[in-house]
Structure formats: C-alpha cells, structure tokens
Amino acid sequence: MKQQRKAVRTRKRNLGRAGRSRSDRQKAGQALPPRDARYAALKYTDEIIKGKISINSRGFGFVTPEGMQKNQADIFISKDELHTAMNGDVVQVQLAQAIAGAAADGHAREGRVTEVLERANSRIVGIYSASRRFGFVAPDDTRLKADIYIPEGQAMDAVTGSKVVAEVTSWPDGKQKAEGRIIEVIGQKGEPGVDILSIMRQYDLSEGFPEEVQAAADAVEQTINAEEHLGQNGREDRRHLKIVTIDGEDAKDLDDGVYVEKRPDGSFFLGVYIADVSWYVREQEPLDVEAEARGTSVYLVDRVVPMLPKALSNGICSLNAGVDRLSMACEMSISAEGKVTDYRILPVVIHVYRRLTYTLVNKILVENDKEFTRDNEDIVPFLRDLQEVRNAMYRYRHRRGAINFEIPEIKVKLDEDGRAVGLKKRVGNLGESIIEQCMLAANETVAEHMCRRKQPFVYRVHEEPEESKVTALNGLLNTFGLHLKTASDGSIKPKDLQVTLEKIAGGPAEKIVSTVALRSMQQARYAAENLGHFGLAAQYYTHFTSPIRRYPDLMVHRLLRESFATGSIPKEKREKIIEKLAERAEHASQRERVAVNAERDTTDLKKVEYMQQFVGDTFEGIISSVTSFGFFVELDNGVEGLVHMTTLKDDYYDYIESQYALVGTHHKRRYQLGDTVEILLARADVEARSLDFLVKDNCDPRALQMQDSADRAESGSAAKAKGRTGRKGRVSGKESKKAKQARSGREDTRKAAERTGRKKNKKDKHSKRKGKRRSGSDVIASFDPLTI
C-alpha cells in the first residue's frame, strides 16, 4: 500500500499536481494542448455548469451541459476528479481555466465534479463474490468502476459466480463504497440464457407487462365491425384496394401496407396504409403510459421486447392478410419524376389482400424466377409498378442530394440453447428498398403537412455535421485532390457530400473517405422543432409509419387525428401539447439510444462467443478505426477486434490523427484506415465482448505457435464434439498435451508482449516523440457507427 501511494503521488506530481492525466485525454481521442502545458496545475473558475456525465470504460468522463448549443464541446473530467460520480449521473461541474489556444484548436474544456445531483444507477447487474460475512458485486458495465458492497444477510441465495441484480441502498461517499442488496439472482455465469437476461436487466428491459396493462390489452376485441367505423371522424373505406404487406419471413407485427396504380400519363397513385394504433391506445390510459415509458420495441439477438402487448402488436393492430383493419392512410400522387404532387391524410378501413416477403419480391423482380413468377401471377404486374414508382422516387431523392451509406447488418444464428453457431452479413435488397422509399415518401409528406400548418408536431431531425468534423474531413479529402465546398459558417450541403463520395466510389480512397464521412455525421433524434434531415436532404421529416413499435409514430398519429376535424389542433389542446412536447421527444430519443445499445451489446456478445472457436486462426480484414493505442480490424463476417500498439514488434509507432494512421518512427511502415491486413485471433473475451488480434507478420514469433481451430479439431474431445468451447477459446474438458503446449505458448506470448510494452513505455519516458504508448492493461471499446 505504501508503495502504491508513493506511485500515485509521483504520477500526480509529474502531471502538475492536478490529478489530470494526459493519457486519459489521448485515450479519449481528444486533441491535446501543447505538451508543456500539462505541467501547469489546473486553476478553476467560478463558472458552474450542470449536465449528464458519460464515463468511459477507462475511467475518465465527459459532461454534456444541459441546453448545450451547437458546436459547444463537452467538458472533460479526469478519473481523479469524478467525486464519486457514476456513468449517467446528473452532476454539477466547476470549470477549469481554459489553456491558452486550446479552445481555438477545438480542445475540450476541463472541469471537476463538485456534486452529484441525480443518480442514474439505482440497480446494477454484475457477478457476485461471497466472503464469510459479506460480499461484493462487480458490475458488468465496465463504465461503473467500483464494486458494490453487499452486507451480511442481503445476498438472497446468491453464491460466488452468480449473475445478480443489486439495488443500491447507500451511494459512495469519499472512500466509502456503494452499498446494496441483492434483489434478483439471474442464474449462474455461463448457464444458457443468463448472458442475454443480464443485458436485459442492465437496460431495465422486460418482456412481460404490468398486470393492469396486460389486462387492458386482453380486453381489446380482436375483430372489428367495419360498418360501425365508416363515416365516423372522416374514416373512409379502402377495402376494395388490393393492399399488400412486404416484410421479413419471421415478422409478426405488421405496421404498414402499400398499394400502387400507374396512370396513363406515367404518374402514380401510391397509398401507404399504417396500423391505426392510436384508436386502441388512448392517451394516459395504462397501455399508453407503459408504451411511452418503453419508447420503442427492442430487437435483441434472440428475442423481441415489444412496446405493446402481443394482443395488440401481433393481433388487432397488425395488418394481417384477409381481415379488416383500422388504418391511417397517406395517399399520394407521384409524378413520373418521383415527386409528390398531391396527397390526402385520412383514417380508413382496409383489408390486406396478401402478405408478401422480401424473398418473394426479390425472386420475382431481381432473379426473374420462373416458378415464383408463375405461382404469383396475380401480383406480378402490381410488383412491377411498385418497382417503377420506387425507382422514380429513389432518383428524385438522389437528385436532391440524399446520401446513401451502405451499412451491412450482421445476423447471428443461434442454436436451441441460445449459443452462436453462425454469422451472416445482410445487405439491402430491392424488396426492402421498395418499402423504404414508400415509407420515406409518407414520412416526408406528413411532416410537411403539419409544418406548413404550423401545428405542434414531433419531427425526426438529422442536423448537419459539426464544423470541426467537416474541417477534418476536408483535410483528408485534400490528400486525394478533393474538397467539400463550405459556407461562411462552415456548413455543407448534402448534395456536395454526395457528389464527393460518388467521385471516389470504387477507388482506393473509397473505404477511408466513406468511413470518415459517416463518422462525421450527427445522430438523428426526435425534436419538437423542424430542423430538417441532412442525410436524406429532406426539409421535412418525421416517423409516421411504425406506431406498433415506435412511440413517436404513435404521437404523430394522435396529433394528426386532433387536426382532422378543422385542419388544425384546437387552441386549448395546442397549448397543453406544446408545453411537454420537447420533453417527450427527448425521452423518445433516449429510449431509442437504450434500445440501440442493448441490441448492439447482445449482438456483440454472441459475435465474440461464436469467434471463440477460431482462436489461433488467421483472417484477412480491413482496418476500420485507428486510435492512439492501436487499430481495429473488421473481418468479412462483420466482427471487429483490436490490434494493440504494444503488439507491433518491428518499430515504435506514432498516431498521426490527420492521416488516420499509425506510422513507424524508423521504418515508416503505415497502418491506415481502410488498409487490408492479415491477422491472428489471439483472444475472444465474452465477458468484455471484445476480440484481440495480432498482425501476422508483425508480432512476437511465438504467437505463430498458437493452436488454431484445425489443430483443435484433430485433437478433439467430447466437449468439442458438442461444439462447446471454454471461455478462452480452448476445448472444455480435459486438455490435450498439444493444447497445453499451445496455451503455454500463448502465455509466453502475452508475457513477452507485456515486457515489450514495458520496454517501449520506459523508452518513451525519455523520448521527445509525441506518440505516447499504451500499457497492455488498457481496456478499449470499439467504434459505434451513428444511426442516421
């Protein structure tokens, strides 16, 4: 302990007695002030701000100020200045004096937490460790750094290794740990299903509904009498139209149907018919309160956590074929050029003619499959008209400047026990694009309708990239002889970015430029103000088409319904709506982010689980991200892993941020975003949901002695025959002599890498080069593409 305290004191003295870590700043990917500035102690101002803190898995954090203005930077908080704050807490921060020139160069301001105003982690999921008279819970969330102390008698029946949910009863104070009690034992670590349930508990997701909510859903009749609804509140009959739904094979909550007619003049009538959920889910009733709290359905790797009970989502609200359903319609006239020239928005009754799948549509329209075409003669002309109107609308949006980022989706195949047995990369197809273009047209039309009438409304907004990111992108483009035209305020137009991306399409610069361009995008969100949608180059946009699974769409339907009688919402209602609309839109955005994170975590977990069997194997991949501590490589199957800088044996490497590259100091070897590299899979850590790679021709030679999956297959065991692997990628059960030798080799490799890292760090301490090394103990997180 005495030596540890001395080491900490020495480190703080070297950092200017401020407890401020330059390495923390580098790990965060932040540009740093001039190197000599770090030796000056931080001085704090009287300026106090309030905001939410996001803590990185490496201990430091950033506070997003409340009401933050565009291009305003988050506040950097070093791990020594957190004042017991935990990830997600609302905190009060005292700002430090800005270092001269730092703000102008885009460096984040720094501060320290002076008070935790609102705690965000009242329940924590983790692994329980029992002691004689007490226990601890180590949080699964790596952003929560401290264990939770569990007093005697508060552990239920948990034993060491149990996955549990702990409720915090006393928050940390100074050196005092947080204290809590176990409220649920999920199961033993490693048992089938426990991994996904743990993530669900971490994000507070539940498949079941409260009793009163389920009772309300069960009470809803599962059939309608169309005659009772026609004529009421302007509802019209559209049962004569041969409306179809087009979805995936396993879809059960069918939100949308479409109908098209091609006119003699080349224009189209396009009807988009959406489930009328607002008729059944009335505001402030139990179903509505629960739906808004959930915000969205969550599509985990092995299940769906629905926003609405199945009696609604898969039953009376779902646009199932062969039955009458209530619907909200957006009926549009589309010119031959793909532009909406006229429209009507109204409630209707429909009767879906057929339920189609993307596979069937693609078989007919793309593959021209004779058997499928012959068996579906009744809809072939209709599908060809749908394809034509899709093409017209797609071309129209492209001329307008819509940006098309192709982001493949990775599907994980699971066995009956929930274990990953395969990965499949999915890319978009024509069937999906037809529905997408129809939905985009309806969303834009509804948004423009309400905006022009100056009605309170919920918009889906996607703001233009921040000026600093546009500048960085232009710096990269300049190396390829390209430049994005910017306005005086640094803004760009979608069309200019679209044209630039098309210029480099198919060339050697495509991967790096498109990746950096995507990462320059802001995240789409919900707002009560119309700010346009940059990615779609749309002046007006909303979400109207998925009220079964997204609460903002349900809000949109209600606001439309309020305006049907007179064309506008009555004044007294309008004032009440406006009062809370922005807050409700922000809540919807937050719930969307929770869903995205939960979906990604479950998918990443199963990806790593699948890759365990390939530890020691060689793969070819593309560098997908470069950082100051190494680079990430994406394999063809969609998984991503880290090559840590300390494992590169041939040189010392500097991180050249402007070039998105690591460059060797002596030999000038480069590892740049978009490069192809051959790697070895060194480690697959399911708990951390991370993969570690080694560059095959640039790592310790002993790494090449690792046992690959083919060797393991030859030496197999009963456990291997069942397709099960241990946590470190070895065959469970008795270890073979060959496996022991391989494991010993890997241990030698790891130790060698650590020694190499220590040698490099020791040398760096006396070096004036800027490329600071990272220790082997650094924990890293992969880049999360923004949803636009």
Task: Give a concise summary.
By secondary structure, the protein is α+β, with helices and mostly antiparallel strands. It is 30% helix and 24% strand.
What does this protein look like?
It is a single chain. This protein has 788 residues and is an alpha+beta fold. Helices cover 30% and strands 24% of the residues. It is built from 19 helices and 31 strands. The strands form nine sheets. A five-stranded mixed beta barrel has the order 1-2-3-5-4. Strands 8-7-6-9-10 form a five-stranded antiparallel beta sheet, covered by helices on one side. Helix 10 packs across helix 11 and helix 12 runs antiparallel to helix 14. The chain is globular. The N terminus and C terminus are likely disordered.
Stretches with pLDDT under 50, minimum 5 residues = 1-39, 715-788
Q: Number of helical runs?
A: 19
* Envelope shape: globular
**Proportion of beta-strand residues:** 15-25%
What topology, given as strand order, has the largest sheet? 1-2-3-5-4
Radius of gyration: 28 Å
How many strands appear in the DSSP assignment?
31
- Secondary structure: helix percent: 25-40%
Multimeric status of the protein? single chain
Query: What do the pLDDT scores average to?
Result: 84
Structural class: alpha+beta
N/C terminus separation = 49 Å
- Main sheet, how many strands, which sense, barrel? 5 strands, mixed, barrel
